Amino acid sequence: MIQMGKMKAVVYSEYGGPEVLKLCEVAKPAPKADEVLIRIHAVSVNYGDVLARKFKHVSPGEFNMPLLFWVIARFVFGPGKPQKTILGNSFAGEVEKVGDRVKNFRAGDPVFACTEENMGAYAEYLCMPENSVLSLKPSNMTHEEASTVPYGASMALNLLKKARLQKGQRVLVLGASGGIGSAAVQLARHYYGAEVTGVCSTGGEAFVKKLGADKVIDYKKEDFTKSGETYDLIFDILGKASFSKVRASLGQNGIYLSVSFKMKKLLQMLWTSITGGKRVICVLAVPKSEDLIFIKELVETEKFKSIIDKTFPLEQAAEAHRYFESGNKKGNVVITC
Fold it and tell me: 88: alpha, beta or left, given left = phi > 0 and alpha = psi -120 to 50?
């Protein structure tokens, strides 16, 4: 039984495999004047959670950003051992208590949110500032479904805005079965009205097709760069491709949008901005509360949905991570609290 003032949380005190995730009792937080205390019901497992869990073992070469970003991340996560010991940044739950200065939320409100790099959602309770990436939950989603939306959808929306996507344009999404990629497929197809091709690994095709992709390519079976097809936008989530590789697959004024990038891509962005024609755009996106509110409206008008593959109870967080990394998932993986 949990003691008064305590809560269950999944904590990791060292970097490593899923086995470092341990269920513990920790102090239950109390909201400050501008914060809300949220009883978490569900939290999604994301690529960022897995990366943070094993970050000590991620080399600069494996990190899909310039060296400076890797150095900064080492200090943020903790160079020797984790500084932020509770993972989880995309969740849904119910407001239990509000601070004295909170105006837009009240106890009992169902909400969904993204804590960004602050993490902390693999727990029964979490405090967040009222003005953070936090919104009322879509009325037509369960907590489990809603938990998968905040991070991926708000990031994808932010990124697609940079590309100035137009109705009828042809879009190819690399990494279409991931959190950001699956959201990008839906937003590009159902909100922007683009023709969308999703690229993913074996097993993810049905999932990406359900999201609304016009065509799905298994990259293990087919190389899209050799098909002769061209696209107005190639959206590369994890920076696995390169401008030289995809250039022939871009239309006359096509854009290669890279979310993860090295210095070479930054230099290419500078050069192509000068020369014109086909361009490289490297983007750092920051989720915003207004983006999340907009996504909520899309969900409630059935223009955005969540597909869950498997759920795990909080005490099986390690198993959830193992399944996420297995390559077998065919949708979102969720931890219930």
Answer: left
CB 207 within 8 A of CB 177: yes
pLDDT of residue 4: 54
- Which of 135, 82, 68, 84 has the alpha carbon at shortest distance from 287? 135
β-pairing, 110-114 vs 22-27, is unpaired
How crowded is the C-beta side of 245, counted as CA atoms within 13 Å?
11
Q: Among 332, 336, 284, which residue's Cα sits nearest to residue 309?
A: 332
Contact of 279 with 252, CB cutoff 8 Å: no
Q: What is the pLDDT of residue 136?
A: 97
Tell me the β-bridge partners of 127: 37
The reply to whether the predicted model has a pTM over 0.85 is yes
| pLDDT at residue 2, as a whole number | 47
Spell out the domains of the chain, with CATH numbers in brackets. Answer: 6-149+306-336 (3.90.180.10), 151-282 (3.40.50.720)
H or E stretch at 267 = helix 263-275
Q: What is the pLDDT of residue 138?
A: 97
Helix (H, G, I), strand (E, B) or coil at 200: strand
CB distance 333 to 90 below 8 Å: no
Task: Quote the strand ranges of 61-160, DSSP E.
Answer: 90-98, 110-114, 125-129, 134-136
pLDDT under 70: residue ranges of the chain:
1-4
Measured distance CA(159)–CA(153) in Å, rounded: 10
Contact of 9 with 101, CB cutoff 8 Å: no
